Amino acid sequence: MEGLTLSDAEQKYYSDLFSYCDIESTKKVAANGRVLELFRAAQLPNDVVLQIMELCGATRLGYFGRSQFYIALKLVAVAQSGFPLRVESINTVKDLPLPRFVASKNEQESRHAASYSSDSENQGSYSGVIPPPPGRGQVKKGSVSHDTVQPRTSADQQEPASPVVSPQQSPPTSPHTWRKHSRHPSGGNSERPLAGPGPFWSPFGEAQSGSSAGDTVWSGHSPPPPQETWVSFADTPPTSTLLTMHPASVQDQTTVRTVASATTANEIRRQSSSYDDPWKITDEQRQYYVNQFKTIQPDLNGFIPGSAAKEFFTKSKLPILELSHIWELSDFDKDGALTLDEFCAAFHLVVARKNGYDLPEKLPESLMPKLIDLEDSADVGDQPGEVGYSGSPAEAPPSKSPSMPSLNQTWPELNQSSEDTAIVHPVPIRMTPSKIHMQEMELKRTGSDHTNPTSPLLVKPSDLSEESKINSSVKFASGNTVADGYSSSDSFTSDPEQIGNNVTHQRSHSGTSPDNTAPPPPPPRPQPSHSRSSSLDMNRTFAVTTGQQQAGVVAHPPAVPPRPQPSQAPGPVVHRPVDADGLITHTSTSPQQIPEQPNFADFSQFEVFAASNVNEEQDDEAEKHPEVLPVEKASDPASSLRVAKTDSKIEEKTAASVPANVSKGTTPLAPPPKPVRRRLKSEDELRPEVDEHTQKTGVLAAVLASQPSIPRSVGKDKKAIQASIRRNKETNTVLARLNSELQQQLKDVLEERISLEVQLEQLRPFSHL
Amino acid sequence: MAVCVAVIAKENYPLYIRSIPTENELKFHYMVHTSLDVVDEKISAMGKALVDQRELYLGLLYPTEDYKVYGYVTNSKVKFVMVVDSSNTALRDNEIRSMFRKLHNSYTDVMCNPFYNPGDRIQSRAFDSMVTSMMIQVC
After folding, report:
1. N or C: which end of chain A has fewer CB within 10 A?
2. From the CA of B41, how many Å to the nearest CA of chain A?
3. B139 located within any domain
4. Cβ-defined contact of B133 to A309 (cutoff 8 Å)
5. Interior angle at CA A348, CA A344 and CA A354, nearest 5
């Protein structure tokens, strides 16, 4: 075959047709199938077709290669133009119009037609007026009245033509055909996935809308299906498909259209860049729809009931069936009522339909009412047009309950989110702490016995003297945490009875001193501690000077169990950390009595404390001092006690100093509890005994010694801390009791002293005068 | 899976009937028609108000050597009849039920369309597509 020169339009048209025929993409087309259809669509006599085939060489080759195909097409055009079929005529005939294929549509058209083909609605409701699409100038030029199906160069035509051809065997020519085509998209046989029935719509719509040929129509029309489709429609309406669907009418008009579209195809193609959204509603349209909606339903958020919508849309004079289909498409949630979005979509579809666009099989995305947070619910992609029954079933459900999938989708999200947010149980946090925390703090701070909440307490009770109190308070101040104070307060509480006023007083002081956070220790319990001693005022007790028997008596801490050694009474009394003076005086005697009393172990500590307190004095009143201090001092005193057991104040002072020094060290402060226990024990056991001082001191020392270790370890281990706290508390309790007892003893001792002095007076009358 | 699907109105006239084209459709029509008697039997036998979904599903109405006919009736006495090819892997009862459920849903959607007058032939494309999906499975 000689070379074939094709014009651009021809080239394009032919290539499209070839593509259409080349179903298998093998670059060669068998003689059967679409090629034949195509040729038949050319409305040429069979012999002519055969001749063409022969000429193009397909018969020789047995198939249509691209060149053969092109030649064949050219020959078709030649034949259709009336020229004799000659090989030479291929190139000789100038200005050969594109081969016309009845119902031939360019590929594109066919594609579109495919979507349309499914449209079974061939209602001729649309007047077949299809003003040639803009750019269909050629069509017009080509005098393409609807009747003349001038095959346009639009390549696409060919293919659609072929499928179309078949149905088209029947003489088409009714203007309907074209419209049918337009409807094809909606009909959609799944012969060809329709690129977008939408696009078809627009062209049709536009075509019909105003018979205003020209782009104006297009541009003005809102749902101009993607121009391409338009174009394609023009080019190659899937006439074939369409035709198959609508055998009858499509043909002429379709062909005409195709021709027209072919011509305009290019233009349209250019125009229709936005394939994306043929169904998009323009703003003005939207506004118009909204206004219409308001006329029916003033509330924009409300629904239009089905009956009202029916009446409204019936006015559009569309066939009921189509309206029914529109309803099916637009009623997204299938509730029998139209929301604003649904209404706009329906209106849009009605408009499109009136303009000639075929109804899509599925609601276009752009028309899909926006679901709450769902976007993928609409799997309805753009008009799949297709036809798809294949697609539809799957899609039907979604379209059916579009909202549901979306809801479902959202729900899982919600669920997930809820799961994510997942209930976080408020973790109960023990507030404990205050004690434990405080204790810990104490421990951390003091790191010594004194941290032990009980230690200071122990110290205190052991040291009935103010000094001890002061010491303890000082200790608190030194840094005991609230815990100490707290615990001290606890300890205080724990031994209401045992603790005399002094003790309580001390405790209260110590309690308050140590920590701010610590709940202020209970106010001095005047009475409970006085169970034994009877309501001696601590102050008065402390105020008692050594020389004042009454004071001493008064000062006697209530409920101090009479200790075996009345001589020792003063000791304990001395140890009361009441007043420095008192303490001093008492302390003076205490050392002596210390060894006698089993409590002495503790007392020794307190003695030292007292001494230190005395020395320091400032702490006397500052009973607020944390127990730590006294504890510390207790610890020190413990050691110092050993040293200065029988020491006088000086020793005490030194001891005080020592304790001060030792305050750092925690060792001396044996765990109060232990000494306390021992003390108590010893008290019980050794009450009758007097010489327990060493033991006591030793015990006390041991206690003190153990204490520091406890706090240290406790610091690390909360449980240990708690355990130590408990121990300290116990110790504290014991010490408090001891304190009360000692106070009682002191009182007794003082009484004895008074009696002795009286006797002395009697014995040496006037001697002292 | 269905070879033929029919929707029968209350008055026992078909609202929609569709068969696989390949087969001799008339035979299916006849089968559907005869099965209506069975449906009526079952309905009358029920007695109580047919509110229960299960009662909506009538089950196998009529087995032949080649086909089985299943029935389903709605509360408004609209009947769905489905002819299934026996040669297919025996469809489980649940599958049949689900198919009827889909039919029922589609029918409901058709009913919801204000443009549809009850008693008219069902021409809904969505309904068609749904039925096709059910039938295409056979193919």
Report:
1. C
2. 33
3. no
4. no
5. 145
The total number of structural domains that make up chain B:
1
Residue carrying structure tokens 């008692």: A544
CATH number of the domain enclosing A77: 1.10.238.10
Q: In A513-648, which ranges are continuous DSSP H helix?
A: 530-533, 538-543, 549-555, 570-574, 580-593, 600-616, 618-621, 628-643
Confirm whether pTM is higher than 0.90.
Answer: no
Note the ipTM here: 0.81
Whether the CA torsion A689, A692, A695, A701 is positive or negative: it is positive
Taking residues A335-363, what's their average pLDDT?
81
Asked whether residue A101 is domain-assigned, the answer is no
Paired residues of A293 in beta bridges: none
Distance CA A363, CA A353 (A): 13
Contact A399/B126, CB-based, under 8 Å?
yes
CB contact under 8 A, B112 and A334: yes
Residue type, A505: H
* CATH code of B74's domain: 3.30.450.70
Instruction: Name the H helices within chain B.
Output: 25-46, 53-56, 93-112, 125-136
Q: Residue A550 is which amino acid?
A: Q
Q: Tell me: the pLDDT tens digits for A200-254?
A: 444 443 444 444 444 443 344 444 444 433 333 334 433 343 333 444 444 444 4
Residue B90 counted as domain residue: yes
Residue A644, domain member (yes or no): no
The tally of domains found in chain A comes to 2
CA angle centred on A355, ends A352 and A360, rounded to 5°:
35
B40-61 pLDDT per residue, tens: 888 777 665 545 545 778 888 8
Give A452's pLDDT tier (boundaries 50, 70, 90): very low
Q: Which of A510, A511, A555, A562 is nearest to A537 (CA)?
A: A555
Domain boundary among A74, A92, A110: A92
CA triplet A35, A40, A44: central angle to 5 degrees? 125
Residue A281 lies in a domain: yes
Q: Are A290 and A300 in contact (CB under 8 A)?
A: yes
Q: Do A541 and A501 form a contact (C-beta atoms < 8 A)? A: yes
Q: How far apart are CA B74 and CA B61, in angstroms?
A: 16
Closest by CA position to B79, among listed B102, B62, B103, B97: B103
* Angle of the A175-187 helix axis to the A197-210 helix axis, nearest 10: 150
Q: Which of B16, B101, B113, B135 to mutate to test the interface with A (most CBs of A within 10 A)?
A: B113
- B103, B115, B127, B130, best to mutate vs chain A, most A CBs in 10 Å: B115
Instruction: Report if residue A440 sits inside a domain.
Output: no
- Identify the pLDDT of residue A283: 84
Instruction: For residue A747, list its beta bridge partners.
Output: none
User: What is the total residue count of chain B?
Assistant: 139
Q: What are B70's strand-pairing partners?
A: B60, B82
Query: Using a CB-CB distance cutoff of 8 angstroms, which residues of chain A are in contact with residue B105?
Result: 400
Q: How is the beta sheet containing B79-85 ordered, strand by strand?
A: B14-19, B2-8, B79-85, B67-73, B57-63
- Residue span of the structural domain in which B16 resides: 1-132
Spatial contact of A613 and A471, defined as CB atoms under 8 Å apart = yes
Helices (H), B49-92: 53-56
Residue B138 lies in a domain: no
**Domain hosting residue A88, numbered range:** 8-92
> Which chain B residue lies closest to A118 (C-alpha atoms)?
B125
| 3-state DSSP assignment of residue A282 | coil
Please judge whether A392 and B129 are an interchain contact, meaning their C-beta atoms are less than 8 angstroms apart: yes
- A305: burial class by Cβ within 10 Å (0-12, 13-18, 19+)? middle
Last residue of one domain, picked from the residues A92, A120, A152:
A92
Burial A138-161 (b: 16+ CB within 10 A, else e): bbbebebebebbbbbbbbbbbbbb
